[in-house]
Amino acid sequence: MRLDVITIFPEYLEPLNVSLVGKARAAGLLDVRVHDLRQWAHDRHRTVDDTPYGGGPGMVMKPGPWGEALDAVLASAPGPERPVLVVPTPSGRPFTQALAGELSEAPWLVFTPARYEGIDRRVIEEYAGRLDVREVSIGDYVLAGGEAPVLVMVEAIARLLPGVLGNAESHRDDSFAPGAMAHLLEGPVFTKPPEWRGREVPEVLVSGHHGRIGRWRRDEALRRTSAHRPDLIERTDPAAFDRRDRET
Ligand code: ADE
C-alpha cells in the first residue's frame, strides 16, 4: 500500500518510522511518503493560510498550495492509479473499525491534515470530482491539526494489512472487529503468573475448555460494553458469537 501525507509539519509524522508501521515500511508492505506543503507556497514567507471570507476568528488554509501539492502527488503515479483522498476534519464522518477495514483494501491513500480552521472548501470540491474523497473525524473533540488523526488512522489501517500482524487471527477478537465483535468491546486479558499479589487468573481461562472460554469471553465483552458503551449494546448480536464458536 502507498501512503502520501501532505502537511506543514513533516516532523510530526516521524512516529510512522517506529513500531508496527515502521516495521511494515521496512518489510516493503507500506510505501510512506511525507511531503512539506510549503514546497508549494511561493511567496517569501511560504504562506499557506489567510483570513476567512465572511469574517470570524482563525485562519483558513489557502487553496493554491494544496492544489499544487495534490496535483504533484497525483502526477507521481506511474500509471492511471487514483488514490482515495482522506481529509481529517472534526466535521467529517466518524472513523470506525469498518472504515479502517475498507481503507486497508485501497492500494493508495493520500492524507491532507490541515491546521488552523481547515482548508478552503473549493479544494475538496475540486478533487471530489476526480477522486474518492473521505472527510473523516477521529472523535468528537477538536485537535490543533489533522496530523495526530493521520497517525491514528494509519496505525488502525496498517495493522489490518496482510502480513503486518504476525497472526491474521489476532484481528478477529478485537473490539469492533466485523462479525461477532462488531458492536462490542473486548473483555479483560491475563498472562502469567497464574497468581499475582494474591489475585488469581479466572479459573475458566486455565481450564483448556475452548467452549467455556469462548462463552466467558462473550459474557465479559457484553458486561464491559454495557458498562462503558451502553449506546452500543442495543446493536450487539450475542447469537453471532454462538454461530462463530460453532464454526471454529
Ligand atoms: N482535526 C482536528 N480535530 C480533528 C478530529 N477530531 N478528527 C480529525 N481531524 C481533526
UniProtKB/TrEMBL annotation:
GO molecular function: tRNA (guanine(37)-N1)-methyltransferase activity
Main location group: cytoplasm
Sorted UniProt keywords: Cytoplasm, Methyltransferase, S-adenosyl-L-methionine, Transferase, tRNA processing
Catalysed reactions listed for this entry: guanosine(37) in tRNA + S-adenosyl-L-methionine = N(1)-methylguanosine(37) in tRNA + S-adenosyl-L-homocysteine + H(+)
Binding site for S-adenosyl-L-methionine: I138, G139, D140, Y141, V142, L143
The tRNA methyltransferase TRMD/TRM10-type domain, residue ranges: 1-234
A family per Pfam: tRNA_m1G_MT
Keyword GTP-binding: no
CDD domains: TrmD-like (cd18080)
GO BP term (any one): methylation
Protein family membership: Belongs to the RNA methyltransferase TrmD family.
Reported function: Specifically methylates guanosine-37 in various tRNAs.
Family annotation (HAMAP family): TrmD
UniProt-recorded name of the protein: tRNA (guanine-N(1)-)-methyltransferase
